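User: Some background: our group keeps a shared notebook of sequences we're curious about, and every so often someone picks one and asks for a predicted structure to add to the entry. Today it's my turn. The entry only has the sequence so far, pasted here. Could you supply the structure so I can complete it?
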Amino acid sequence: MHIALICRYLTAERGGHERYLKRLIRALIGRGRQVTAFSGAFDPDLVGAEGLECIEVPSVRFPQWLRYLSFNRNAERALKAHDASFDLVFSTEYVTFGDVYRAGAGIARAEIESCCGLWARLSPKNRVKMRLQANLMKSGPQRVIVNSESMRRQVLRYYDLPKSRIALVYNGIDTDRFSPQQREKHRVDMRRHLGLHQDDFVCLAVGSNWRRKGIDRALRLMRRVPAKRLKLLVVGTAQRRLRRPARVGGEERVIFRAPTSSIGGYYAAADLCIVASRYDPAPNVILESLACALPVAISAECGLTELIGEAGGGVVFDDAGELAGTVGHFMEIRDTERYRQMQRDAARIGQRFTMERHVDELMDVLESAQLFNDIKAADQG
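Assistant: Of course. Here's the predicted structure to add to the notebook entry:
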């Protein structure tokens, strides 16, 4: 199978999506597939890699709305100009073409309605994102890949697609890197490095888009729960106005750290991971936390809530008051068997989501789309 992959960037420093794509490319090539990537930028280790062809697609840098439009236009032109015959076109971006579309960033309309005020909804960038995604859905892709049940519901709500064309494939993570053993190994040293006391209860919040990721909600939690032993560890580029430390009795209770690819140490230091997102289809931080045996508290507006509930491993909260009560409860039970059972439940859930499982399920989707294309071509022939 020869796959044309459409992605704006293949540089790991940009974030988790790009790191995921690099792992996926290596996994596809390892399974004997050939990949031609159409992208605006590549990490040096990809250029010249066996089984991978890199086609650079230029786009206008500013303004942002024109960046989206120009990448869509130039990527489609480059695809048509390429002399290879592709078995299918696999896109992960806001473009108007493709056989298989992985909506990893979510549904643009749902995100904008959840996170944006009136002026932001009217911004050219957001209007372009919605238009590109809507045009792709209208073009009738063979498969739309979603990574949570909430995203499946959003696709059905906003777009007229048959249920049979929507495939749920959960994200995959490195379950060796994110594991209870690694958390236990680094916990004491990491807490010492952060200046934490043994009695401190640490909540972890991860994200740079402070409104979408609900970092402001996590910070407001500190005013609702004034206990001195409660600490909040924020990993991300929080807005400057959010960096005013919450203090009780002169003691700083909020720790800010810059984004990093070495996030495992922060999972080790934490006692609870808070995902207070207003919109987030399937944050890897949930899967990684669970795999590390770190219980999670997830906003009901977030994806992957279906993983929590009777299965254990965390809780789902509806509002700030409920989050405060949840954190207080976890502070009470941290040193009990009940908390240790939640840790075991979390690890049992999270360790299922291996990259191998993800690639297996993704390949099933790609192969079914290829089969559909082959049958269609035969009928037309």
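Suggested note for the entry: The radius of gyration is 22 Å. The chain is about 45% helix and 15% strand.
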